[in-house]
Amino acid sequence: MRSETGFDPALYDRFPTRGSRPKGEEEELRRIWCKPKGWEYLTVVNNNYVGIYYLGTAFLFFLTAGVLALLMRAQLAAPMLEILPQGTYNQVFTMHGTVMMFLFAVPAVEAAGVLLLPQMLAARDLPFPRLSAYAFWAYAVGGLCFFASIFVGLAPDGGWFMYPPLTSKAFSPGINTDFWLLGIGFIEISAIAGAIEIIVGVLRTRAPGMSLDKMPIFAWSMLVFAVMIVIAFPSIILGTLLLEIERALGWPFFDATRGGDPMLWQHLFWFFGHPEVYIIFLPAAGMMSMIVAAVAREELVGYRLIVLAMLATGFISFGVWAHHMFTTGMPPMTTGFFSAASMAVSVPAGLQVFSWIATLAIGKRSFNAPGLFVLGSIIIFVTGGLTGVMVAMVPFDWQAHDSYFIVAHLHYVLIGGMVFPLFAAFYYWIPMVSRRALSEPLAKWIFGLMFSGMNIAFLPMHLAGLQGMPRRVYTYLPGQGLELPNLISTIGAFMLAAGVLLFLIDLARNFRLAPGGGNAGNVYDGGTLEWLPSELYSTRSIPVVRSREPLRDDPKLVDDVAAGRYFLPGSATGLRETIVTSPLLAEPQYLQIMPGPSAWPFAAAVFTAGFFLALTVQAYMFGWVSGVLAVASVLRWLWETDRPVEQAEVDIGAGIMVPTYVTGPSSHGWWAMVILLVVMAMIFIMALFGLAFLWSNQPGFWTPPPKIGAALPVALLYGSALVAALAARRLLPRGAGGSAGLLLLSVLAAGVALWLDWSNWRASGLGPQASGQGATIYALQALQAFAVGTGLLMAAFCAARALRGLVSLPRNNSVDLTMLFLAYTAVQGLVAALFGRAFGMP
Amino acid sequence: MRSWLILLGGLLLWAVHFFLLYGIGEFAGASAASRGAVLLLSGLALGAVGLLARQLLPLDRSDDFARWRAAVALGGLALSALAIAWQALPALIG
To answer: Is A600 helix (H, G, I), strand (E, B) or coil?
Structure first.
């Protein structure tokens, strides 16, 4: 494979360039990527700041959820204690699990991606910096408000997986459950925004020459992680939406007495919930692979196998969701499939562990701070993995299910697989963002306390579980042999907390943020690009990558990059910019003009959070006003983008010319839109699965649907919507007005089709509250209405830009993306109309 | 797109096989016919693995990237073959 895009790889030989760079070039970069002042810290979009904000907030949630864990352990230290009342205990364990999983684990690794990836890939920033800022602020504001619910006794109390019927209106009448459903659904939207940013960032903004086989393992892990989010998270978004609709409007998706099925929730939840474990583990494993190589001062053993293991984990982890449901009475053959897949997924996880052990074994390992946490992680994670294989076996799972054995297993997996690697990463990468490294002597105490505390806390839980102690009980009776293991667990938990407290002290003493340069530097001798000297604009110039560890293989690289002897040594357009490269071989394709700081992503995030929170507390007027303001803020933010610059082509170094504006499948915007459509398609597919599942499990409640022939006008209208959307792009070279008109026509056709489909179902006599079938059919229509409404906004946006002369000819990204969205909307509507009628046809 | 299909072909085969098996188990139940369908599908999937292997083995390995791509693709295919065979066992024994 010589070239992916027609770019001549021989051009790389022009680098490093010779001679000195013009005066003032570096100063101009500093001016363009300047430091924020005062309130600008709220509007900053640069990953150096947003990444730190993100990581700091995630760590704050780790601490708060940890305090909740200590409260639980205090309550369970001895039998029949009354430190926490039963109801409060329910809220505390629900919030502990929810906050750790949703507000700490996923955001922490996403934050690490936002902070590290641009440096590691030698990009100036990720491709959608405003989206990163929006994702962070939405998460921070929404998460803090969600957490605050515990202070007023309104925190959710149904466990972190919120099974109905316990969480239905009948058994949870307050708004506690609504806080979870709306809060978590909303925060997951923020996670998806981050995932889109990471996928496009990793695939399209790598340094020239960094082909997939030379990509750092952490970038690989973040790529697989983000793709998994895109596939898995729509399921929980749909689930929370359906349960909230059931609670608010009485549509019986999960009510078995009215043709719904609570098992549907379990499928939707765990289709997200189990991949979630690997979503958390993979980036941590990526960090481990980077740190192990540095700690052992040896190239990572089995790079190809590790990439393969990550890809395989990404796939096979989607075949294990129902192993959380072995005790629910699933058909035996299905149970067998999930048991087999649960064992199969341990193979790629094992590959990674053996690679780390082999690298440490052959290298010149040193047990410095990251090295200790790496070692601790391997021991703890392997222990959790072994008990995981035990519970993958159905007969054993029947005995251990919902006992403290499971609590022990999941904490070994998550603490070993994510928390210890994260602490290793803190020690390893803090010198990249701080003027001082953390203390090595203190790190040994911290590791000792955390490692021993973790094992003292959770090892006895295996025993307590096998002795019959169920999880989620607020107390237990004396004389059952549970006193000693529980007391030991409590002591261990406080030791673990003492380790974290010492870490905070270390941070307070040594962590001094240096986003604009002057950091402690490459303390642990890493070989990847994040250790190049950098400032707010990232590296002075963007190097050509010729190996996996360029800093080790080319001793002059640091000086050449700092002297501007590689790509983009200054600003070619006087604006923020980065090089967009091809996905496989990272060949330069075009120069992306990047948006700068803006208040609009911040405003959009605050109003989006306001919308969801107001709905939770039933302040509907405030909610709708917030919603409208959120949409207005997003439109205002987008209004400033998608504007070609004067120079159609620029020199990005050594005379290599690239365009500054690209449309179609090569553009980063197109990639992001396609990923967004995958998210929407997954939500839609999970809703279709819901309909099929209810049809299969609740046939007694099924009403014959309207005749499939009646869908013909609906199909014709959706077909017209599709043709109009495609024609809008084709006709753009003849004028923006006609193109925008066709986009609006496409929306109109889709809207009429939806109305016709809805009328058909109303005429059939099936209402949304009649049965699970009715609820699901109208939920599909609601999803379609959302797509049509969004399409209308986008088409109107294009029309407004056409009126203002902001649509570039002959091609324009806003028109392209609106066309893609409307084409998808038409296809989704058509499939919904046919699928709903196909199930239960007479 | 071709490179992505080469890299992920084996794992995509596993995914198609797994979700078809799940569909049979969930919607058709555990009858003798279902077991037969599972075994037939598994045989077809393993056959497809064999065909894919025939396509992948002669792949170009003239540069670093091509060698890496071929190695990851064949590794993924081997892992998928193992998982597909393993996945079929519940229908054989239960």
So the answer is: helix
* In contact, A187 and A143? CB cutoff 8 Å: yes
In this complex, how many residue pairs, one in chain A and one in chain B, have their CB atoms less than 8 Å apart? 105
Return the number of other C-beta atoms located less than 10 Å from residue A512's C-beta.
Answer: 12
Nearest to A261 by CA among A239, A234, A236, A233: A239
Q: Locate the chain A residue with the closest alpha carbon to B28.
A: A696
Q: Which residues contact A324 (CB under 8 A, 6 or more apart)?
A: A266, A270, A273, A274
- Cβ distance B90 to A316 less than 8 Å, yes or no, reads no
Mutant choice from B6, B7, B22 vs A, greatest count of A C-beta within 10 A: B22
Residue A393 in contact with partner chain B when CB distance is under 8 A? no
Question: Of the candidates A324, A341, A311, A225, which has an alpha carbon nearest to the alpha carbon of residue A267?
Answer: A324
Contacts with B66 from chain A: Cβ below 8 Å = 1
Please judge whether A333 and B89 are an interchain contact, meaning their C-beta atoms are less than 8 angstroms apart.
Answer: no
Residue A653 near residue A588, CB atoms below 8 Å: no
Quick one: which H or E segment has residue A264? Answer: helix A262-296
The pTM of this model reads: 0.96
- The upper half-sphere exposure of residue B48, i.e. CA atoms within 13 Å in the direction of its Cβ, equals 18
Closest Cβ opposite residue B90 in set A212, A305, A333: A333
**Cβ-proximal residues to A123 (8 Å cutoff; 6+ apart), any chain:** A117, A201, A205, A206, A207, A538, A542, A578, A579
Using only C-alpha atoms, what is the Rg of chain A?
27
Torsion, Cα A321 A322 A323 A325, to 10 degrees, reads 130
For β-strands A534-535 and A538-539, DSSP reports them as antiparallel
> Among partner residues B38, B65, B79, which is closest to A213 by beta-carbon distance?
B65
Instruction: Write the CA distances from A329 to A263, A270, A335, A368, A614, integer angstroms.
Output: 10, 16, 9, 50, 39
Residue type for position A36: P
Phi, psi of A24 (to 5 degrees): 85, -5
Handedness of CA A741, A747, A750, A755 (dihedral sign): negative
Q: Give the Cα separation of A534 and A519 in Å (integer).
A: 9
Strands (E) across A623-710 are located at 649-651, 657-659
Tokens 């056709």, residue located: A749
* Number of Cβ atoms within 10 Å of the Cβ of A458: 25
Say what the ipTM of the complex is. Answer: 0.95
Quick one: how far is CA A756 from the chain centroid? 37
* Alpha-carbon gap, residue A672 to A657, rounded angstroms: 25
Binned average pLDDT, 10 residues per bin, chain A of 842 residues: 87 93 92 92 94 96 98 98 96 97 95 96 96 94 93 94 95 94 87 96 97 97 97 96 96 97 96 93 96 93 95 92 88 86 88 95 90 96 93 92 96 97 97 95 98 98 96 96 97 98 97 86 92 93 96 94 95 95 97 94 95 90 96 95 92 95 96 98 97 94 90 96 97 95 98 97 95 97 98 98 94 97 98 91 68
The SS3 assignment for A165 reads coil
CA A438, A443, A445, A450 torsion: positive or negative? positive
CA A688, A694, A697, A700 torsion-angle sign = negative
Nearest to A385 by CA among A452, A337, A313, A328: A313
Closest CA to B92 of B22, B26, B32: B32
- Cα A468 to chain center, whole Å? 36
Q: Cβ of A699 under 8 Å from any chain B Cβ?
A: no
Q: Which residue has the tokens 């022009």?
A: A14
Contact A521, A112 (CB under 8 A): no
**CB-based contacts of A826, cutoff 8 Å, min separation 6:** A718, A719, A721, A722, A725, A746, A749, A750
Cβ atoms of A254 and A697 within 8 Å: the answer is no
